[in-house]
Amino acid sequence: MEKTFNAAEAEARIYAKWDDAGAFKAGANAKPGAEPFSIMIPPPNVTGVLHVGHAFNNTLQDVLTRWHRMRGFDTLWQPGTDHAGIATQMVVERELAKEGIARKDLSREEFLAHVWAWKAKSGGTIREQLKRLGASCDWSREAFTMSGAPGAPEGEDGNFHDAVIKVFVEMYNKGYIYRGKRLVNWDPHFETAISDLEVENIDQPGHMWHFKYPLANGATYRYLEKGEDGEILIDEERDYISIATTRPETMLGDGAVAVHPDDERYKAIIGQLCEIPVGPKEHRRLIPIITDEYPDPAFGSGAVKITGAHDMNDYGVAKRNGIPCYRLMDTRAHLRDDGAPYAEAAAIAQSVANGETTLGEMEVDALNLVPDHLRGLDRFEARKRVVDEITAEGLAVMCAADDPRLGLKPKKKSGEDAEAEEPSEVPLVEAKPITQPFGDRSKVIIEPMLTDQWFVDTAKIVEPALDAVRSGRTKILPEQHRKVYFHWLENIEPWTISRQLWWGHQIPVWYDEDGNQYCAATEDDAVAQAGGKALTRDPDVLDTWFSSGLWPIGTLGWPEQTPELEKYFPTSTLVSGFDIIFFWVARMMMMQLAVVDDIPFRDVYVHALVRDEKGRKMSKSIGNVLDPLELIDEYGADALRFTLTAMAAMGRDLKLSTDRIQGYRNFGTKLWNAARFAEMNECKPDADFDPTTPTQTVNKWIVTETAKARIAHDEALANYRFNDAASGLYQFVWGKVCDWYLEFAKPLFASGDDAVIAETRATMAWVIDQCLILLHPTMPFITEELWGEITPRDTMLVHTDWPTYGEDLIDDASEREMSWVINLIESIRSARQQMHVPAGLKVQLLQSDLDAAGQTAFGNNAAMIQRLARLSEVTPTDAFPKGTVTIAVDGGTFGMPIADIIDVDEEKARLEKTLGKLAKELGGLRGRLNNPKFAQSAPAEVVEETKANLAAREEEEARLKQALARLAEVA
């Protein structure tokens, strides 16, 4: 064997060997009549590259898949990619721009041809990267959510497109899908609706403007504002109501001003009209003052302008109160420049506000309430103009120039300006951080927009998805994520499924010249429905979450009743991130139940985030992103996989550091060295070895430990406790096998007894093989390499049968004896370390009282104990002399004389000095954590780091105090 495992050389070679042998194909290594196990990969975007979240998610899936395959299940890990409408269209548009071509220079068909060409060239990147991770998917079945779509080239001729279209048509005909006007997230760069998951909410410096909305006809009221203790803060007559806004340009579309029904300040003016303070004076609109539960009396003035077409919360208020929603912007987020002149549109809107006219939804949308001189402006330029006009008219709320809400320090003037008198009052424009929604790909501010879209009426299909989890047909783990699932579905809104893109499944609906809809799988069918009329197809495409919502059945060949669909559906397990419980998991539940009346999966394991070592979310701006491919290059895939698995504690985020990965690479090295030690001692695996036959206590003990490790590992994985499964194997392989068994075996190899040597060789060969088998799902590359290196085999490790031994191999007597021996050796080593006894020095051990079991254990293993504990001799005694450290074990007591070995007083002084410095450090850490200001203001990761630091220092203090107590005993 080579001295080390060369991961960089071996991994590609080993993966190619698996691939060539068809090791990952559905049903590979399945036993006759085997139970199926199927798992669906959450399809990464076809534009994607492997990030650490992918690495984590796919490692856990691969552990489960390899484990079930080795256990003889009929296993399928179904791979594939999502067509990623907006992301892919963006990538292709960028590529075309390099050639000076804009998308709109092309026909739809020409542009889609470019997309398919890009997909053929670059769309397989993430597949190859998943292979580097070791993902054992059945690549022969790789699916794509646009396979079989019109214009798809050869090789993309699956039927996923047919499935998507069939479901749309069926759901449309059942009344589950409809077209309507609702508020959506609108990306002005791509000019399309996007989902909440595609919106990044980012805190930025911003402003809140305060304006006066004058009461109609010069009306006034007494404004009385009180403090918490009932003291009067403001008592004045007002002819306006004050509102605050971060988006003044949307005031043009206000439909009302709302106050809370319990807000005493405004009771006298509820039902009155107030004036929107912008636009031509002669055409100022009046809007009603209404009540609603939404306004918070304690926030700002307690009065909220309601712009239903441009704010998610306002939309709800408008719908509850019958307030019109006036759309101000076009698809580029410029103020509209269409429709009738402002004077005419404002007069119609005023008639509606007065209760004289009622408009339909389409008529409301057609009204353009942007004043003529502002039409066509970009929204941010319009904002500046609106603010300037209101301020110039004197309708800005004023405040003292040094008001702290302004968030500004007065500027020092120089020269002629220095003599100018400072104004005593200025417009109230609060400087404050504001959460802005950005498109995650376009990086522009998202505009809530009232547009015509296609929707799934989720209220009609949600109940079966709720019942499936309530009844336990589908289990969601950890338990906390059931609550998230129920919260989303019990408060579900209609689902926007249309996107204004070209890349995607085009909506299968056609319109005649009168706007009548014809939904059909093909245009010919639609024309037949329309009686031969000329039709125009809806240009929108379906949201990718709609098509990926059919992933479980679509990848298995539905709507055809394929053997795979019959065998592997419902799938066994879904491994997914918590952030897409609603966007993907819940929608798959709803759609599979609506389409085939069955659950898509039996178990859902929801994992947390991978964070950096300080607990911070990985971010390019922070510079803490860990690239899994770079980590694989440096440490090998096995080390990264084992790290991710060992840290996958249920419900807890991972704090990933390169130190941890390096540590698990060392674990791989330890395993390699153990196999080399076995080879050097001529330990050759024997297929006929019976692990119940060893007679030596050491060999019976390691067989027992192996059986216990197998039982614990399987029980942990069966319950998705990945971290327990990995840490249990780590403790067994490194702790029991490498640290102890290899050492315990050395005297047996040197015994000169041929029978003992043969038994130990056979036992060690079997144990090393079991280590490889048990570790393979988590560390597949190094274990497969060792499996082939140790001896020629008929079967690769990937298809080796998983062991079934268990309680039958556990020998309680050998376990008790060797546990006693290990405990004694560790106690002696600990005492030596605490007392600073030189590592290479052999010391005397005194034996006091010891029961029969202890005497037997010591007698059977005396040579090993003396060698491993670095003892010169072991002497029985009735009493320990002064200067002896006591070492207690089950059934007796030992002592280690150290008075003549170390300077007790000097060692005591050293420990006391160290404890003194540590006490100061502990006091500082505790002081920070007990300070409420620190807990409130410090970043969460800093607080967590401080807590971890305190725990480590407290542990160190306990060790030092224990050592000091031993010294006091010696003295």
Word description of this protein:
The chain is α/β, with parallel strands linked by helices and about 950 residues long. Helices cover about 45% and strands about 20% of the residues. The protein is built from 29 helices and 33 strands. Strand 5 and strand 6 form a beta hairpin. Helix 1 packs across helix 24 and helix 27 packs antiparallel against helix 29. The longest helix has about 30 residues. The mean pLDDT is about 95.
Short description:
With 971 residues, this protein is of the alpha/beta class. A hairpin with a 4-residue loop joins strand 5 and strand 6 (192-194).
Low-confidence runs: none
Mean pLDDT value: 93
Helix content: 40-55%
Helix and strand composition category: alpha/beta
Described by the principal axes of the CA atoms, the overall outline is globular
How far from one another are the termini? Answer: 53 Å
- Sequence of strands across the biggest β-sheet: 6-5-18-20
The total count of helices amounts to 29
Any idea what the radius of gyration is? Answer: 36 Å
Oligomer: single chain
The fraction of residues assigned to DSSP E strands is: 15-25%
**Quick one: biggest sheet?**
4 strands, antiparallel
In total, the number of strands is 33
Short descriptors:
29 helices, 4-stranded antiparallel sheet, 43% helix, 971 residues, globular, alpha/beta
Note the topology:
Blueprint: H1 7-20, E1 36-40, H2 52-70, E2 74-78, E3 80-81, H3 85-98, H4 108-122, H5 125-133, E4 143-144, H6 160-173, E5 177-187, E6 192-194, E7 199-214, E8 221-226, E9 232-238, E10 240-245, E11 256-259, E12 273-275, E13 286-291, E14 303-306, H7 312-321, H8 342-353, H9 361-366, H10 379-392, E15 398-400, E16 425-427, E17 429-439, E18 447-456, H11 462-470, E19 475-477, H12 480-490, E20 495-496, E21 498-499, E22 509-511, E23 517-519, H13 523-529, E24 536-537, E25 541-542, H14 544-548, H15 551-554, H16 563-568, E26 571-577, H17 581-596, E27 601-607, E28 610-612, H18 628-635, H19 637-646, E29 654-656, H20 658-680, H21 697-718, H22 722-749, H23 754-775, H24 780-790, H25 812-834, E30 843-850, H26 852-868, E31 871-876, E32 884-889, E33 892-897, H27 904-930, H28 932-937, H29 940-970
Parallel strand pairs: 1-2, 3-4, 11-13, 19-27, 26-27, 28-29, 30-31
Antiparallel strand pairs: 5-6, 5-18, 7-10, 7-17, 8-9, 11-14, 12-13, 15-16, 18-20, 21-25, 22-23, 22-24, 30-33, 32-33
